[in-house]
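Supplementary Methods S3. Complex input for the histidyl-adenosine monophosphate-bound model.
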Amino acid sequence: MIIRKTQSIRGMYDCLPEHTLLWQQVENMLKIILNSYGYNEIRFPIVESTDLFKRSIGKITDVVEKEMYSFNDRRGHSLSLRPEGTSGCVRLGIEHSLFYHQEQRLWYLGPMFRYERPQKGRYRQFHQFSAEAFGQIGPDIDVELILITVRCWKTLGINEYVNLELNSIGGLSSRITYKKKLIDFLKKKIDYLDTNSMRRLYSNPMRILDTKNSKIKELLVDAPILMDYLDDDSRLHFNKLCELLDFYKISYKINPCLVRGLDYYNRTVFEWVTNNLGTKKTICAGGRYDDLTKQLGGETIPAAGFAIGLERVLLLMQLINSSILKRTVCIDIYLIYSGNDMQKYAISFSEYIREKLPSLRVMVNYGGGSLKKQFDRAKKYRSKAVIIIDENYFSAKKVILKNLQCRLQEIIESNKIIEKLHDMFL
Ligand code: HAM
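Predicted complex, serialized as structure tokens:
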């Protein structure tokens, strides 16, 4: 009988050691940046009630209609794997009274799930690094969020490959007026609309604005522009935002078709896009969502945030610097031994080194073997140095240290090794 190999699920990927190293580096850089702006980390479940996502993202959105991984638990409650984090973050804040008379600046990181058609940069399990700021009504916080993203791109070395697109979708009243105008316009072009746009025409017509269908895109050139219907407060907010971005010399393009695929946004929406990943792709998206806390049963708290799509950022980094993954996993010191029953001394010695220099990666040879074989293993692990615990030297409280990078070898008193390794590695 042939036993079929088990496989990962389409659109969901494993992360091997070299990649994990890069992920860790990127995540650490982003954490340091968010920390430097005073944002605090939160963690919340991957599974939430389906109702949460319907109420926040909106029932008539691609994400809720087609892309959620939903299932019933044993009691028949509908649960979903989170397709994004803002909903869970707001749920957490309301449930733990984080927003009660206080501002909050939060960040989180983790996997999200959407049943989309997988392609380069689009997966069914992907990871977002997000920041959310609660309690600030002004455009200054929108700018802070954008400044944070700019710092992220500079730190990761991708700032020259991404562009900022910006829009304001106003408040509810401006969107109601605008939707009527848009429907009137689209009704006149009804023969040209595809089934998806037809479906959206009355339920969510603004979603037609970011269609991928090139024929409809052409039609939309003459469509009414949301910006022309903005309420006064939203217009002032947007003007001030642009003024501040100009002041900080952050370039941006106003994209009147930018409406976002999640229903909770109002006023500012923005996306960082790149043309370097095949088709135009968004690597980070966000905006204001001042009504969401109320919609989910809390007080009205103004809020804004963004999410970075980590897979896309990593793809971009690898594209810009093809050798980025060649900084492969390696270890610093490999301990080998010669003589009867010497492995146990090598292990004790390695424990001593870890105690004193915990940041070094130290490994002991397992499985015995001749010195040559042990050296070969050290090379396979790409060790930078080897310490040889030799029976004769060890009884004289000495070890042999070989630097595999410059091939220098020296005999060192065991109690001097820490000082030596410190100079060598730290
Ligand atoms: P979003 O635009 O749905 O916004 O997702 C944010 C980012 O996640 C996208 O720009 C993209 O980089 C990445 N992303 C989305 N779907 C996929 C996928 N299938 N495969 C790979 N990457 C993907 C949100 O999720 C909002 N919660 C952002 C936000 C936070 N707004 C305010 N606060």
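The first strand starts at residue 40 and ends at 41. The two ends are 55 Å apart (CA to CA).
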